[in-house]
Each structure stands twice: as C-alpha cells, then as structure tokens.
Specification:
By secondary structure, the protein is mostly helical. The protein has two domains: 121 residues, Orthogonal Bundle (Arc Repressor Mutant, subunit A), CATH 1.10.10; 76 residues, Arc Repressor Mutant, subunit A (Orthogonal Bundle). The N and C termini lie far apart (86 Å).
Length: 237
C-alpha cells in the first residue's frame, strides 16, 4: 500500500491533441512478458519516448540523456547516488536482454557510449561505427555522425562504367586497398560526366590525387571547372 509521501495520483491525460509515442508491437509480445525489473522497464519505455523526439536518420542515446532529466532520475532512486546506480543496472539489463545495443566511439575529449534500439537501423548503425564509418559532428548532444554507406566498388563500376573482366576486377581490388572509397566514387563520377568510361582514365585520376594531393574543399564545390579539369588528359584505349 502506498504511504502518503508516495501517493501521487495521476490526474489524467489532457484534452485535445496529445503527441503519441510509437512502440513496436514485438515489445509487448516478446519483451514485456519477460521484463521483471521495474528499472529495466522504465529505461526501455523512456528510451522509446526520447528516441521518438530526436531527429535524424540514425538516432541514439547517451548516458547524459538519462542523467540530465531530473524528473526521470527522481523516479529511479531516492537520491542521486542510488538513482545513478539503478540507471546503470537497468541499462545493463536492457542490453543483455537485447532491447538496446551499446557501442563506443573515441572523440577528442574521450570515449563516449552510445545506445541504440535493437532495430535493423540500430544494428546497421552499430556496425557502421565499429567499422569506423563515422565522424565527429561537432554537436555536444549528438557528437557522432554516421557516414552514408559507400557503394561496393565492383557494383559501382558495373553500373556506371561497364562489365567486369578478370583484369579489371583485380585492378579494382588493388584500388580498394590503396584509395579511400570516396575517392573512387568521385573519380568514377568524373569519368561518367566527361564520358570517358574506362578504368585507365579513373586510375589516372586516383594516381594524380595520391601524388599531388586532393583538395577536399575544392572538390566538394563541384564546379564545372572541377568536373571538366581531366577532360584534356590522354585517354588511351
């Protein structure tokens, strides 16, 4: 029975339009029947609610998302020390059960833990971070930005240049080991725009960038001059 201190009855949901939080149906069918810890349940539901309020293709939580919410933390323990301990235990339970996924990223000011929902997009994000496919965002609240997946070099060649021969496949494999994926993608784009669809032309671009350096800011401007500056190169068959 609740004592007077704990007897805080809910006055009811307000009238009018109220924002809804989406929770996947498997949560109720596959997770809820097995959750026997109140802290774990609170953290799982809070994660659904907070992630629903964030923006971006890949959404994740940090420990600070929980600890900076005074109302939430007040419900986790009678004082800050017990609340933080309960939060740590609840997060660990969510990870062990598979509701949440945890990964880490090393930033200039230290290592940060990131928590994702165990969804297809969450799993893809964790894999991308563990492959190093991310960069610092400069945003303290959301410090890690996940980079878009680079296209497979063989698929990229077949789609934009032509059929693969064993010799070309070997050359592509060597290029994959030697150059950043973004360089290869950009070199293929230049070849297509200049209508010079052969590997030797693309390889020449890549070697020039490697030997003389590539001005990332200049290339990102994507001006007509940038797109055509290789057009006068020799184009051997």
């Amino acid at each position: 029975m609740l004592n007077k201190k704990e007897d805080m009855s809910f006055s009811g949901f307000p009238e009018g339009k109220v924002r809804q939080t989406s929770i996947p149906e498997p949560f109720f069918q596959e997770l809820l029947p097995h959750i026997d810890n109140l802290g774990e349940l609170k953290v799982a539901l809070y994660a659904f609610w907070l992630l629903d309020h964030l923006e971006g293709s890949f959404r994740y939580l940090r420990l600070s998302h929980f600890t900076q919410d005074a109302i939430f933390m007040n419900g986790m323990g009678k004082d800050s020390r017990s609340a933080e301990a309960a939060l740590g235990d609840a997060l660990e339970r969510c990870i062990i059960r598979g509701t949440l996924l945890r990964t880490k990223a090393s930033l200039a000011d230290g290592v940060v833990e990131l928590f994702f929902l165990n969804t297809p997009k969450g799993r893809a994000a964790v894999q991308a971070i563990e492959r190093g496919q991310w960069r610092p965002s400069g945003d303290r609240q959301i410090p890690v930005e996940i980079l878009p997946e680079q296209p497979n070099i063989f698929r990229l060649y077949e789609e934009h240049i032509g059929p693969l021969s064993p010799m070309i496949a070997e050359a592509l494999h060597q290029a994959e080991q030697s150059y950043p994926p973004s360089w290869i993608e950009e070199a293929v784009r230049i070849a297509v725009e200049n209508n010079v669809r052969n590997w030797r032309y693309i390889d020449t671009i890549l070697r020039r960038w490697q030997e003389k350096g590539r001005d990332e800011r200049k290339n990102r401007r994507d001006t007509e001059k940038d797109r055509r500056r290789y057009a006068d190169w020799e184009n051997p068959d």
